[in-house]
Design brief:
It holds the Pfam family MarR_2. This protein is mainly alpha-helical. It contains seven helices and three strands. A three-stranded antiparallel β-sheet has the order 1-3-2.
C-alpha cells in the first residue's frame, strides 16, 4: 500500500512535531481492507459488465446516474462530480456511450456553457440487461459475506466520511495547470 506505517509514536509527541504524518498498523489494515476490497469487487464488476453488455463499470455507472435522475438527464458536470471523475474523463466515456446510442448530449436550455446527457431507450435496455448479473456479483462478493449489523455499521461510518468529503470543493471546480496537462496528468 502507499501509506507508510507509523513508527508507533503518538502524533502529538514532541518527537513527532514536524515529522511526516503516518498511520498506525490498525489504520493501515483498515485502509488496505477498504482499498483492496473495492478494487477486487470493481475489477470483477467491470469484467462481468464487459462480458454481459459490452460496457465498462464506469459507463454502467454513468447510465445508472442518468436513469435515477429526473427525466433521465443530468448536466455533465453534475455526473462528473457525483462519480468523482474528471470532466475530460467523463466526456470521453459519454462520447463512447453516445456512439453506441445509449445516451444523447444536448446543450442546456438554461446555460449555454452546460451540456446535458440524456439516457436513451437503448441505454435503459443496456441497464436492464446488465443489471441482474451486476447485482448478483456484488451480492456474492460483498453483501453475502457480511451480516445486517455489520452492513449498517459500515454504511453509517463510510456514509459519514463520504458526506464530509463531499462537502469539500468538487473535483470539477479545479482546473489543471498547463504544466500538469503537458506532463500527462
Amino acid at each position: 500500500m502507499s501509506i507508510p506505517p507509523s513508527g508507533g509514536a503518538n502524533p502529538g509527541d514532541p518527537e513527532r512535531i514536524g515529522a511526516a504524518p503516518s498511520v498506525s498498523p490498525a489504520e493501515m489494515r483498515a485502509w488496505a481492507a477498504i482499498v483492496e476490497t473495492a478494487n477486487i469487487v470493481q475489477f470483477a464488476a467491470d469484467r462481468q459488465l464487459r462480458d454481459a453488455v459490452g460496457l465498462t463499470l464506469a459507463q454502467f455507472e454513468i447510465l445508472l446516474r442518468l436513469l435515477e435522475a429526473p427525466e433521465g438527464r443530468l448536466r455533465m458536470t453534475d455526473i462528473a462530480d457525483a462519480l468523482t471523475v474528471s470532466r475530460s474523463g467523463l466526456t470521453y466515456q459519454v462520447a463512447r456511450l453516445e456512439a453506441l446510442g445509449l445516451v444523447e448530449r444536448r446543450p442546456s436550455p438554461g446555460d449555454e456553457r452546460s451540456v446535458i446527457a440524456h439516457i436513451t431507450a437503448a441505454g435503459r435496455a443496456a441497464l436492464a440487461a446488465g443489471g441482474p448479473g451486476y447485482v448478483t456479483l456484488v451480492r456474492e462478493m460483498l453483501f453475502d459475506r457480511i451480516g445486517p449489523e455489520e452492513l449498517a455499521t459500515v454504511t453509517e461510518i463510510l456514509g459519514d466520511v463520504r458526506a464530509q468529503l463531499r462537502s469539500r470543493p468538487k473535483r470539477s471546480a479545479f482546473r489543471r495547470s498547463r504544466g500538469a496537462a503537458a506532463a500527462g496528468d
